[in-house]
Amino acid sequence: MKLLNFNTAWAKPGSAIGKRVGRILAKADADLICLTEAFPALVSGSGHTITCDDRSGHVYPDDRKKVLLWSREAWSDVFISDGSEMPGGRLVSGVTQGLRVVGVCIPWHMAHVTSGNRNREPWEDHISYLKHLAPILEEFLTRPEPLMVVGDWNQRIPTPGGPSKEAHFAMIAAIPEVLEIVTQGEISATGGWVIDHLALRPPLKALDFKFFGPRDDDGRPLSDHVGYTVELGFAESLHATRIDGRMDL
Q: What predicted TM-score, i.e. pTM, was given to this entire model?
């Protein structure tokens, strides 16, 4: 099974950037896609899409979603955070292809500080989201399906010398130890770190990462994030992860 994870930075379908992103999504031929800050129309072809709700505190003029999940197969047992406790419009989950998938768009450190509601302190929404994410993940771990958490986490992991120790420790507390974050650390194929992460519960394993962005092979912008595809399989151990390099766009 191939997974694609990418923050499209609101690339609009039909725009020059949107067309480039759409071609990458089509060429990847993934079985499962997580897009953040995205238009659902970017994902073409047959398949099934579930999205977060619209309670992020931002008023958008069109069909934008903070996080969406697409699968070749149908979804069941769909869960959408309603924003009654954790910051809303940023989580959707469902079961497909035998997996429980949790798609997240964790608020960046300035969420609702200088835009949106403008009533937060730096890192406030980020930390609040993580505190409410923890019990959701713990509950999903009681279910029989293998679990993955994927999307835009808006934090390097680990965060040595990071700007917020509280945010760093909130992330550690939110992700149960049984989940392995297979995208943490400095990744040579990207020339640095990623903030769009993937965490897996055994027996899931990750193999053959291919990274792309923030520009295509011709130097044209795609996003302000690095995305990737990764082959997923099942094993007793997760220690088979390989970082193979950049995707040929």
A: 0.92
